[in-house]
Design goal:
This protein has 13 helices and 25 strands. It folds into two domains: about 210 residues, Enolpyruvate transferase domain (UDP-n-acetylglucosamine1-carboxyvinyl-transferase, Chain); about 210 residues, UDP-n-acetylglucosamine1-carboxyvinyl-transferase, Chain (Alpha-beta prism), CATH 3.65.10.10. The chain has about 425 residues and is an alpha/beta fold. α1 runs parallel beside α3 and α7 runs parallel beside α11. β23, α11 and β24 form a beta-alpha-beta unit. The chain is elongated, with a radius of gyration of 21 Å. The N and C termini lie close together (about 10 Å). It is about 30% helix and about 25% strand. The chain binds uridine-diphosphate-N-acetylglucosamine (UD1) and phosphoenolpyruvate. The site of phosphoenolpyruvate (PEP) has 9 residues, from α11. Belongs to the EPSP synthase family. MurA subfamily.
Length: about 425
């Protein structure tokens, strides 16, 4: 049953919101557990559709999984590398981590090319280059990748032409049990990469340098189970920070690592938002007026591409003209025409959105991907006078925001779900 979000805006968000574990870590940590011979326990796991699909995929591959509350216990001991050319793997982008994990444990994997939010083409050539460098043969068979290692994978030096989170993690997964040493150069430095390396090391892997541009993986013969707590979701946290500013609210965003939020904190401060950092929380106090700023979405520690769309909704409330440029994905702007339907003055030029200060009004709008959806929710919450904004495509938003309606309602928003006819 499809649903839509209904938002009566104009209410400042006030109170405290708890941030769950990071989706973009969870979808890599769950397949990483395949590499162990015994039980892996993940704590602080978010309740999201991507996690649920991943659970089904691992179960289909023979894992036994118990998921209760925010804890998942994965027993991978009886798993097999069964070909998955179609079906569930097509539902999420992160199914590509099955390639590295199954290759690393069984020396083979056949996985359909991944789905997920298709805001623009999302190539995986660097992942393939990495698997090949480790000694695997890769062929495309009717839209599925068949990856085979005739003998044990062997360590290699791999330079990534582009900084890629997905390729860095996939190579770490494949190399963890390879023979010898692997060096990933020009690696991505995102906190999610450190999270995956931390789990793998707790499983017995020997990985150093995660979080820097050079990662060294000393292959080991086998990996064992362990217990690991997932880092807080910095994108979810950033979304609530931006929403607090956009509604001129006063919100404590709790269970965050403030260091992970530095890029968004700095931009909000530059606009004039008041921010107070504590050990594990950030208080965001909105102000009546904001200055325009230029924002560049970059690899970490730059401003996250995943927060580019939410930020667009805040920037249209600033005085003057802001330029929002995405250097990770050149065309991630499907939210812009929808925001224009709400009265925003913005246009796309090349890989930038040019955004003028404007008043938003309610409208019927459509989320076409996860973060575009988040931007429309923030826009709906910011509509100052009258009317109800209807956001369809909620299934995309559900990929990344646990308890969105409950959380926003607790902060004083008037938001509810309705069946979409
Ligand atoms: C660097 C970055 O911010 N990555 C984000 C990206 O990760 P995601 O894993 O989707 O993307 P990557 O980090 O892998 O890709 C970064 C860039 O490299 C390109 N590329 C990637 C792999 C490849 O084999 N070939 C190639 O050309 C991509 O098209 C993109 O332009 O989206 C995720 C979900 O929105 C975010 O959580 C990640 O933080
Ligand atoms: C687009 C996103 O997710 P995915 O890469 O899993 O599609 C996201 O987290 O913003």
């Amino acid at each position: 049953m499809l649903e839509k979000l209904m938002i009566a805006g104009g209410r400042p968000l006030r109170g405290t919101v708890q941030i769950s574990g990071a989706k973009n870590s969870a979808v890599a940590l769950i397949p990483a557990a395949i590499l162990a011979e015994t039980t892996v326990t993940l704590d602080n796991l978010p309740h999201l559709s991507d996690v649920a699909i991943y659970t089904e995929i691992l179960t289909d591959l023979g894992a036994s999984i118990e998921w209760s509350g925010d804890q998942m216990v994965i027993d991978p001991s009886r798993m097999k590398s069964i070909p998955m050319p179609n079906g569930k793997v097509k539902k999420l982008r992160a199914s590509y981590y099955l390639m590295g994990a199954l290759l690393g444990r069984f020396g083979e994997a056949t996985i359909g090319l991944p789905g997920g939010c298709n805001f623009e083409p999302r190539p995986i050539d660097l992942h393939i280059k990495g698997f090949e460098a480790l000694g695997a043969e890769v062929s495309n068979e009717n839209g599925a990748l068949r990856i085979r290692a005739k003998q044990r994978l062997r360590g290699a030096k791999i330079y990534l032409d582009m900084v890629s989170v997905g390729a860095t993690i996939n190579i770490m997964l494949a190399a963890a049990r390879a023979k010898g040493s692997t060096l990933i150069e020009n690696a991505a430095k995102e906190p999610e990469i450190i999270d995956v390396a931390t789990l793998l090391n707790a499983m017995g892997a020997k990985i150093i340098g995660a979080g820097t541009e050079t990662i060294r993986i000393e292959g080991v013969d086998s990996l064992h189970g362990c217990r690991h707590s997932i880092i807080p979701d910095r994108i979810q946290a950033g979304t609530y920070m931006i929403a607090a500013a956009a509604t001129r609210g006063d919100v404590i965003v709790d269970n965050v690592i403030p260091k992970h939020m530095e890029a968004v904190t700095a931009k909000l401060q530059e606009m004039g938002v008041h921010i107070y950092e504590m050990d594990e929380s950030i208080r965001v106090v909105g102000q009546p007026e904001y200055e325009s700023v230029d924002v560049k979405a970059l690899v970490y520690p730059g401003f996250a591409t995943d927060l580019q769309s939410p930020m667009a909704s805040l920037l249209c409330q600033a005085r003057g003209v802001s330029i929002l440029t995405d250097y990770v994905y050149s065309n991630r702007f499907k939210h812009i025409p929808e925001l224009v339907r709400m009265g925003a003055k913005m246009k796309v030029e090349g890989r930038s959105a040019i955004i003028e200060g404007s008043f938003l009004s309610s409208a019927k709008v459509k989320a076409t991907d996860l973060r575009a959806g988040a931007s429309l929710v923030i826009a709906g919450l910011s509509v100052a006078f009258g009317g109800v904004t209807e956001v369809t495509g909620v299934e995309f938003i559900d990929r990344g925001y646990e308890n969105l309606v409950t959380n926003l309602s607790a902060l004083g928003a008037e938001v509810w779900r309705e069946r979409e006819e």
